[in-house]
Write a structure and sequence with these properties.
The complex is a heterodimer. By secondary structure, chain A is mainly β. Chain A is built from no helices and ten strands. The radius of gyration of chain A is 13 Å and the shape is globular. The model of chain A has no long low-confidence stretch (mean pLDDT 91). The chains are: A mainly beta, B mainly beta.
Chain lengths: 116, 114
């Protein structure tokens, strides 16, 4: 597709369950980012992938959060033992190689996660 | 540390009015990038502009214009002759040179009333 796609668009889960969120970046984009947006808030950085380099996990809020990416393709964000505070919209973005920080990030539509 | 402040939480204007969205940032870095994104009701963020900290020239793109003032650490966004389709949440963001992520402000919700 032309843009970043994410699935599912909505996910409702029960507290304590694990969830997996998926991101398909724009073809050719080597950099991929996950952000979290809580209701009425700005975006919080979670994790960054660049090609085959070790990911930057500095934004992950706890060890219940993890993400994987194979090469320059799909990424999955996994939240284990979900808590109500995990309820948010999870946004994925991709860009050309991050270089010196100037490449714009193209965002997907997000996955709205609700933890009951 | 980096910080982006968008003091205006919500703004309402009547169609055709001009509106300015404020953005003030903090960083110790001498080089950085500033961005504006639009988030319409559909939820998908749309890139509007990127500005390098070395370039303080103002920019105009159609009805949009940006005023970057390093002296006051501000990067304000003006929409001229606003339209209903401009209704959205607008985010200002900062990215350090060589950093991987964007630091976002909390956004300004703009409502344009027909």
């Amino acid at each position: 597709g032309a843009g970043v796609s994410q699935s599912p668009s909505n996910k409702v889960t029960e507290k304590g369950k694990d969830v997996e969120l998926r991101c398909d970046p724009i073809s050719g984009h080597t950099a991929l980012y996950w952000y979290r947006q809580r209701l009425g808030q700005g975006l919080e950085f979670l994790i960054y992938f660049q090609g085959n380099s070790a990911p930057d996990k500095s934004g992950l809020p706890s060890d219940r959060f993890s993400a994987e990416r194979t090469g320059e393709s799909v990424s999955t964000l996994t939240i284990q033992r979900t808590q109500q505070e995990d309820s948010a919209v999870y946004l994925c973005a991709s860009s050309l190689a991050s270089g010196q920080g100037g490449n714009e990030q193209f965002f997907g539509p997000g996955t709205r996660l609700t933890v009951l | 540390a980096q910080k982006v402040t968008q003091a205006q939480t919500e703004i309402s204007v009547v169609e055709k009015e001009d509106v300015t969205l404020d953005c003030v940032y903090e960083t110790r870095d001498t080089t950085y990038y500033l961005f504006w994104y639009k988030q319409p009701p559909s939820g998908e963020l749309v890139f509007l502009i990127r500005r390098n900290s070395f370039d303080e020239q103002n920019e105009i793109s159609g009805r949009y214009s940006w005023n970057f003032q390093k002296s006051t650490s501000s990067f304000n966004f003006t929409i001229t002759a606003s339209q209903v389709v401009d209704s959205a949440v607008y985010f200002c963001a900062l990215r350090r040179t060589g950093a991987n992520n964007l630091f976002f402000g909390t956004g300004t919700r703009l409502t344009v009333i027909p």
